[in-house]
Design goal:
Layout (H helix, E strand, L loop, with lengths): L1 H7 L31 E6 L8 E7 L2 E7 L12 H4 L15 E3 L5 E3 L2 H19 L4 E5 L5 H14 L5 E3 L6 H11 L9 H5 L2 E5 L3 H4 L1 H8 L6 E5 L5 H5 L2 E3 L6 H14 L5 H7 E2 L1 H7 L5 H8 L3 H13 L3 E5 L1 H4 L4 H14 L9 E4 L6 H7 L14 H11 L14 H9 L5 E5 L3 H4 L3 H8 L4 E6 L12 E4 L5 E7 L4 E7 L10 H12 L11 H12 L12 H6 L3 E2 L28 E2 L18 E6 L16 H4 L7 E5 H6 L7 E5 L4 E9 L6 E5 L25 E6 L6
Parallel strand pairs: 6-7, 6-14, 8-9, 8-12, 9-10, 11-20, 12-13, 14-15, 15-16, 21-25, 22-24
Antiparallel strand pairs: 1-2, 2-3, 4-5, 4-16, 17-18, 18-19, 21-26, 22-25, 23-24, 23-26
Helix pairs in contact: 1-3, 3-22, 4-22, 4-23, 5-16, 10-13, 10-14, 10-16
The chain binds ligand MGD (2 copies), iron/sulfur cluster and molybdenum atom.
Length: about 725
Amino acid sequence: MIRNLKKLIYQDTGPLTEELILTPSAFGLGQLPQRLLPDQTVSMICGYCSTGCSLDVHIKEGQAINVTPTANYPVNLGFACPKGWEVLSPLKALDRASHPLLRNKDGKFESVDWHTAMLEFVNNFVRIQQTFGKDSVAVLSTGQIPMEEMAMLGALVKFGMGVSHFDSNTRQCMATSAVAYKQSFGFDAPPYTYKDFEESDVIVFIGANPCIAHPIMWERVKMNPHDPEIIVVDPRKTETAMAATKHYAINPKSDLVLLYGLAHILIEEGWIRENFIKKHTNHFDAFKEHVKKYSPEFVAEISGLHKRQLYEFASAIYLGKRVSFWWTMGVNQSYEGVRTAQAIINLALMTGNIGRPGTGANSITGQCNAMGSRLFSNTTNLLGGHDFLNPVHRQKIADILELDPAVIPQQNSWAYDQIIEGVISKKIKGLWIIATNPVHSWINQNQLKDYLKNLEFLVVQDMYHTTETAQTAHLVLPAAGWGEKEGTFINSERRVGVIKKVTKAPGRAMPDFDIFKLVARYWGCERMFAKWSSPEETFQILKNISRGQPCDITGIDDYAMIDRLGGIQWPFPEGSAHASHERRLFEDGQFFHHDHKAKFLFEDERPLPEIADEQYPFLLLTGRGTSSQWHTQTRTAKSAILRKLYPSQVYVEINADDAKRRGIEQGQLVFVATLRGRIKAQASLVTTVKPGQIFIPMHYPETNQLTLAIFDPYSRQPSYKICAANVSKSPYEP
Ligand SMILES: Nc1nc2c(c(=O)[nH]1)N[C@H]1C(S)=C(S)[C@@H](COP(=O)(O)OP(=O)(O)OC[C@H]3O[C@@H](n4cnc5c(=O)[nH]c(N)nc54)[C@H](O)[C@@H]3O)O[C@H]1N2
Ligand SMILES: Nc1nc2c(c(=O)[nH]1)N[C@H]1C(S)=C(S)[C@@H](COP(=O)(O)OP(=O)(O)OC[C@H]3O[C@@H](n4cnc5c(=O)[nH]c(N)nc54)[C@H](O)[C@@H]3O)O[C@H]1N2
Ligand code: SF4
Ligand SMILES: [Mo]
């Protein structure tokens, strides 16, 4: 086997000798957490959502036994949601992947040692690359591992392994915002700080349900002393809509027309800030021309709102002294998401609601390190928000990493959906999936499940061997999770925070960072990563890479400084005065385009990709169900406490009148069908979903059997939130 490998690996490390093969001590396997006393409390950032709360982990006799929210952390101010309180439970689950698992000839998983696992990995991937070309293998990763792990993976995959096609689940989530910001502001830069929730007098949430998805951000809204107008734009009467002062239940995906309609009224009424527009933006005149056709009559018809509501909404924006606009997946997950996000940005620009306290065009991120992934994963951007297409950027990164610039790809990677297309068309034969569970979460999942069978070799690296995706793998690599490793996350308000190792991973599971180092070793490109000796050393490298960029963090000394200051928001260049707790961007009106101006960007709306008809008369919406469920539930379902807080079986929310008309009763099992598939779900009769619409949470494996694989043309983000569906008592309909 080893001889075989020697022939195949790239010859940068030279021949692989026995000494280079893994020894347990080399990678900290089974070692007790370092730098920790057996009894102490350690503060670190929560491992679930992008809010980035700090939790105090209490360690007794070397065991992490409990958590409490950190009282004086500027993000959560002593609060945590149920997931945060229960963050330790999933670590102890019995289905943790504790050893590498290799599928044997009978199709069963067999436990193997790391040496065997690595040989299988490298032999198969190198064989596939040598037979079918370098681009016949691809990698899919995540927004849920620390920045240092992401960067290590990105550099390994693209510079070490010569793989061009590498994307992450951030595509499912944040791609739209990233593209919208980049085009409008010149850099992917969410401008806000959480204090803005407290300082606004008008807060507009569009396609966001923070009561469920970001409950601690919602706490910050509740702390606002200005008795703010809270406006929610969501087809459903969500928990947030109920707590708001105004809810506009628009027709699904009519946001773009609504936002242009609001711009139309603001311009017609002269409710705009001409000075700001002139000084700090481009293309306003063309935008003004564009929105002329979005008359209140037309907008009312498309959005389902009354004309009166449109004027009420526009005047709230006009009368507000500090208006902040917040959006999440109701905007991003759309076939016209980028232009919708930019229509929100346009409203903030034209009314001068940016760069001042309590304002902003603010995209809320999702996963704990979504922002880290946007900047440092080496997927869409070259490390540090650089551009693969820019030779100056490539040279800069090559110099810092002491690389031959030729190893840096000169084109962009395929996006997630294009990688899946590659699997379907059998161009991609080997796939490595890290910390994401696409067999559950990817849009139109039936298709994906079938096509993964096309792969010659599928490697899944996860904390659990039971995930829907791990179950389809040839090789499972057991990963340490949050709490079992070190690194940094960047939260929604651009705050860098630290996570720490407070407990041991089970068996032979290792931090992803160490797994990547091991792959580099077996691949033969270990020398490239000689300086990436630990997460903290890697952080120093990333700092250097960030120099001169809008996300410059060269002023951060080390992890201890981040802890000491309660997290640090970027930018924080060398020589920065010690950060105040809360900072926002664009206070000087300077954007990141060359002329320092922001751009008005716009386009005509597109038709709904699938309309309700006689056979499929409902529009299906999907999203988060409860604050106790996290995505595909590989973690939250492991907590007995969290399991009590949500329905265990998939359910469909249907308007009570629609249900009555169809003879459907509360709790009854019904069939929900789309052109892609049919599932059984429990009917939940509600008034919060409008007639003609239904809602199914994404946390159940059935949901994405129904969704329609349509993507935004600019961000290639999936349009998870809309398709036509039927609900019936009979399996024979439609
Ligand atoms: N408890 C919990 N919290 C989470 C997560 C979780 O899984 N569980 N996941 C995290 C992640 S990664 C993310 S990305 C965020 C997501 O956070 P959110 O985006 O707030 O959550 P969603 O429920 O996906 O979508 C928000 C709303 O969009 C609405 N919507 C659907 N279609 C439209 C439309 O056409 N227009 C408008 N205006 N609204 C529409 C839905 O009805 C829904 O209420 O949550 C994060 N926080
Ligand atoms: N219908 C519908 N579908 C959706 C959405 C929707 O609104 N509607 N939302 C989309 C969005 S916004 C998102 S972000 C995606 C989320 O989709 P996924 O990323 O597939 O969801 P998770 O369940 O978070 O998957 C993370 C995986 O990583 C593993 N893991 C956790 N920590 C670690 C670690 O440190 N190392 C390793 N190696 N593994 C780890 C977990 O066990 C889990 O299997 O879902 C998308 N899918
Ligand atoms: S709001 Fe998010 S970061 Fe805060 S405790 Fe809950 S899951 Fe963790
Ligand atoms: Mo997400």
